[in-house]
Amino acid sequence: MEPNIGQALAAVLTLLVTTRALWYLLWRPYAIARWFGRQGIRGPPYKFLVGSLPECQRMVVAGRAKDLDTSSHDCVTTVQPFFRKWASLYGKTFLYWLGPTPALCCTDMELVKKVLTDRTDMFQKDYLNPSLDPVLGNGVVFANGDDWKRRRKFIHPAFNQGMIKAMSEITLECTQRTMERWRAKIQESSRQQTEIDMSHDSDEIAMSVIARMMLGKNYKEAWEVLVAGKEQLKLATYAFADPPVTGFKYLPTPRNRRTWQLDKLVRSKISRIIEARLGSSIYEDDLLGQMLQLQACSKTQTLSTEEMVGECRTFFAAGYDTSASLITWAMFLLASYPQWQEMVREEVVREYPAHHLPLVDSPGKLKLLNMLLLETLRLYGPIAFLQRKTSSDTTLAHMKVPKGTMITIPLVMLHRDKDVWGPDADMFNPMRFQNGFLKAAKHSHALLAFSCGPRVCAGQNFAMVEVQIVIATILKSFTFSLSPTYVHKPSNFITLTPRYGLPLIVRKLQQAV
Questions:
Q1: What is the rounded CA–CA span in Å between residue 498 and residue 73?
Q2: Where does heme bind (predicted)?
Q3: Quick one: CA torsion of 395, 126, 380, 69, rounded to 10 degrees?
Q4: Percent of the chain beyond pLDDT 70?
Q5: At a CB cut-off of 8 Å and minimum separation 6, what does 66 contact?
Q6: Is pLDDT above 70 for 356?
Q7: What's the Cα-to-Cα distance from 219 to each of 251, 265, 416, 427, rounded to whole Å?
């Protein structure tokens, strides 16, 4: 009798699991597609389990087969060709599928404003791909609601003027160290020039800066964490092609096992540093120290050690990868447009003559360089898209949107929208920012490289000052051009990067200033 009961229970359990799976993977997607269809929102048809992902991958592979001309800044063809195709077929707002998860792609600026600024409690941040969890950490970037407000109190004050000044000096030192290596290579060359990979060197500069800013005297451990984080980032990029199946990240695949090893290494190193500082009550004067001091002064709210580990990981990932990307693409544009390289160099020399070097006050002085960087963020911003997730059933303009729907904002497309930026939206034109970014387009918040609204990137001023110092310092000593070996193929590896690096021909100025 007992075996029969066990078999019956097993059969019932199997039936329940199967029914639930079919509801989630089959019936629900088709019901949601019909729901949106009745509201006039269409899109590519849902495919069982995988949704639109295989079609996205096919179009990206096809787009990568062709090299772009270096004068073409239309990287939508290599980064988001699927969004362009579907927008042409289905309109500015359309439905597509991230596995069985419904997603609305939104290129209407009024709807974007509602999502990012007006109703942030309803449209919340979400990883979607769990592979990003160990890379970005469970920090303020992906926190929501009261948890985000609590964490923000410990993070935003860390980006104070004193820390930005300290970062300026560290950035200057790290850039000069890289330039010394260039000088040595040029000295060895009979042609008084050398080829460098600016993508690699941008990474190295940005990693050195964030390692020293984040953990100061614990620089060696910080560097080890960053190296491990870079490998995690690479593994996370591969994981985007994994089946969209709940629990896949727990399977002991070779990649998952390596991810777990790196995760354990990073957690243990940061935890030991935090616990050592808490135990000695010597917090140090770095970003981690700023968080610890703020926590020590707070009588009501605190962060646990695990939460501080998450914030450190977020700082590491967001603090170097986005800055490195911006440095790389700014150098690409300056190398591609020598007249702008000379104009910005003249501005830098005029504002910082002789051996005076740009420090914390450079943003107010270097107007042309700031315009160049804003145009770089428009054409080659580090982040290709923003995503939010509806926390409950809601209404967005005229649309009724069910809970759990992803809202995708394709920045690569929006930043090239001629209805927003004008007829020259595909062209390089930093002068569009001569009156500031709020007046550069028909919509005041059209530039979304750092997002906008309450969830705007807390470190945007930090990053902009860092990148200005790097570029200005290089311009005072070197002239550079694209190497003939450069292949123009922007690719989205979490951040936007040149697929085959950025080889530049670097020469010393006749008279460095």
A1: 12
A2: 457
A3: -90
A4: 92
A5: 77
A6: no
A7: 34, 16, 40, 41
Higher pLDDT, 48 or 160: 48
In what helix (H) or strand (E) does residue 410 lie, and over which residues does it extend? strand 406-410
Residue 25 DSSP label: I
Q: Do the beta carbons of residue 329 and residue 376 sit within 8 Å? A: yes
Q: Is 457 annotated as a binding residue?
A: yes
Which residues, other chains included, contact 38 with Cβ-Cβ below 8 Å and sequence gap of 6+?
none
Asked whether residue 153 carries a pLDDT value surpassing 70, the answer given is yes
Q: Indicate the residue type of 153.
A: K
Report yes or no: 286 and 216 within 8 Å, Cβ to Cβ.
yes
Residues 167-204: tens digit of each pLDDT: 999 999 999 999 999 999 999 988 899 999 999 999 99
CATH number of 46-508: 1.10.630.10
Task: Report the phi/psi class of residue 247: left, alpha or beta, with left for phi > 0 and alpha for psi in -120 to 50.
Answer: left
The owner of tokens 């009588």 is 299
**DSSP character for 200?**
H
Q: Give the mean pLDDT of the chain.
A: 89
Torsion angle of alpha carbons 93, 96, 101, 105, nearest 10°?
Answer: -30
Count of CB atoms within 10 A of residue 420's CB? 17
Can you give the residue ranges of every domain in the chain? 1-37, 46-508
The DSSP bridge partners found for residue 387 are 408
